[in-house]
Structures are given as C-alpha cells and as structure tokens.
Write a structure and sequence with these properties.
Layout lengths: L13 E11 L30 E2 L1 H15 L8 E5 L6 E4 L7 H6 L4 E3 L7 E3 L7 E3 L2 E2 L7 H4 L8 E8 L6 E8 L5 E10 L7 H13 L14 E12 H5 L5 E7 L1 H9 L3 H4 L2
Antiparallel strand pairs: 1-11, 1-12, 2-8, 3-4, 5-6, 7-11, 9-10, 12-13
Helix pairs in contact: 1-4, 4-6
Amino acid sequence: MSSHTADTALTFLGKLILEGEIHCQTGLHIGAGKGSLEIGGADNPVVKDAFGIPYIPGSSLRGRLRALLEQTMGLAIPSELVYLSKRKGQEVRIHQSDRADDEICVLFGRNPGRVDKVTGEALEGASATPARLTVYDAPLVVDSITPQMRENLDDELTEVKSENAVDRITSQANPRTLERVPAGARFKFRMVMDVLCEEDKPLVARLAEGLRLLEDDALGGGGSRGNGRVAFGGINLLWRGKDYYAKGSAEESLLTAADLAAFQQLASAGDFSAKLA
C-alpha cells in the first residue's frame, strides 16, 4: 500500500502526460451493444465514433487496468469488493475501501456515501478521494489499416469473426459473428496523472505495472478466445510542473519513443520522484 494517510495534504505539484500507441496483436473487439443491427451485419459490432471509425473508449482501457491491478494486489476477493450494480444478471463488483493508503482508490478515485459490500456490512465512505488517473478515448490510426489489409477485410476498417457454440447434448451449433478491428491496427492513447502530493509519485510505477499486465492479458471482449492481445509502444512521458501552468515554464521530457519496459524501469527507479520537481 501507499504512504498516504488521512492527514496527507493535497496541493498540486504537476501533471504527468503519458502518450503512445496501442498495437493490436490479434483482432480487437470492444462492443457497441446490439441496438442498431444492419442486415448482413455482425451480431456484435465494435464501438465507433460519429464518423464510423472504431476507437477504444477510455473507460474500457481504464477499467481493464483497474481490474488487473485489483487482481494482482489481492483485492478482487469478496471481502474487498462492493456493488456498483446489484441488478440480477448484471451485477458489477469493484474494489473499494475507506483506507487512506489504498492505492487503487487513490489512483482511480473514491466516492463518499454508503455502498453495499459483497460480504459483510455496508461500507460508509466518509470522504471523496480525487482520481489521479485520467484515460482518454484512443482513436484509431486509420493509416495503420493498410490497402493490403483492406482487400481482405469484411468492412473498410473491420473484420467479422464467425464463432460457434455447440450444445453438448444435441450437438446443435449456435453460430454468431463478432466484428473486430484487425491485427496490425494501431490506436493513439493518452493518459494524464495528477500529482497532488509527494505520496502520489510512486503510483506511476503502479500504472506501469498495470500496462505490463495488460500486455499479457486481453483488452475488450472474447479475450479467452484469442481476441484483444495488445502491446504498447512509442511511449512519450512529459512532466508539466506547477509552474508550467502558473508561469509558462518549460515542460520536461522524461521519455521519448520508448517501449513499456523503459517506462517501467524509469517509474520504478529510486530517483524517479526527484525528477518530478
């Protein structure tokens, strides 16, 4: 856990700007729901912007990072989970606690009020914790879908993957189709981390850990069936201290066109906090 306490004073030291690319190693499916099916279209379309171009919602990327960190920190257990939704068949459980040193709640934020825990008595949150991490929607790099790739796609920018579920008694097949952004596509990501106190600086290493976990997991739907394997590259890291905003001082470049390993090594180094002066 972090060194935050109930008495930690929050001011504003600056912002870390993390940018780079998400490379699809396999087809990526982040669903848009089934509300607007077209004749001959996929049963499960991907989410698209107003121009019909696929993108990765910031909420999907942020939520996956949070889930992976909760798992690796041993917080995805009933005694540490609360209900966001208790609707039958649509339950949503996430980690939340009232501990001041809880890194998940510090990094992703915490709302005050009463929430039902999965086990035990309801949690009465007394105060809010501002989220340090903001994750923006990641737009598709359209040129990453090459003319050669387009010749083999079902749509201009996406492919359709057919799957079958087979009944174990009757052997009857239940075919379904899944729209995916193809392997080889790239998305531009941007994350901003607010540093509100000295105790926040080690959280950058926790973010790097989440990104490393995601590379060996999956983003979006159908991960256990081969979808959603991604890699991060071309990483740029900028530090914009308080004077950048108050006086127009120069920003500091900490990484340029680096890989994820370099980002993690930098964030985990003993002298990293001193770089955020």
